Amino acid sequence: MTNRVFRKIPVSLLVLASSWASAADFNYNYFEFRTGSSPQSFGSEFSMNITDNFHVRASADSQIDHDWDLAGGIGFNGPVAPTTDMFGHLLLHEIKYPKDDGGGSDTLVELSVGIRTWIADKLEGFGKIGRMDRHSVVGAGIRFHSTGQLSMNMETTNNGVWGPQIILGVRYQF
Hints:
- This protein is mainly beta.
- The chain has one helix at about 1-25, and strands spanning about 30-35, 40-50, 55-60, 70-80, 85-95, 105-120, 125-130, 135-145, 150-160, 165-174.
- Strands 1-2-3-4-5-6-7-8-9-10 form a ten-stranded antiparallel barrel.
């Protein structure tokens, strides 16, 4: 009798883990367009799954002052609860500063981790924390999924380059 119970425990855990793995249902295939304030900036981002828990990511942002922040790299993602995903990124940034800030350039590595969770049926909360050289990278926000393919977000972030900003974005998921 006890032997049958002990055989059922691993099977039960496997069933539970597989339901958790698909329960959070976050999409990492997307294009995003965004604008930031103080300083004003514009940018875009692309992410695509390579496997279920591994994705590539690229982004480009600028203050439209002969400057840019180009980033590309790899990321991981995975469920930690039925409605929550954890993610992380290892990105290489090529940064050209505005002339007002000296006009120089840097190549820096960013390492960050974050969490995405469903707050309501179509409302997602997210946050991340990390480092880029000597600078902190932090951010938190909400994303409203109006359809399965279109979502809008608002976040407060410090990307390690321009300081604190409020970001508004539109994301197309494919």
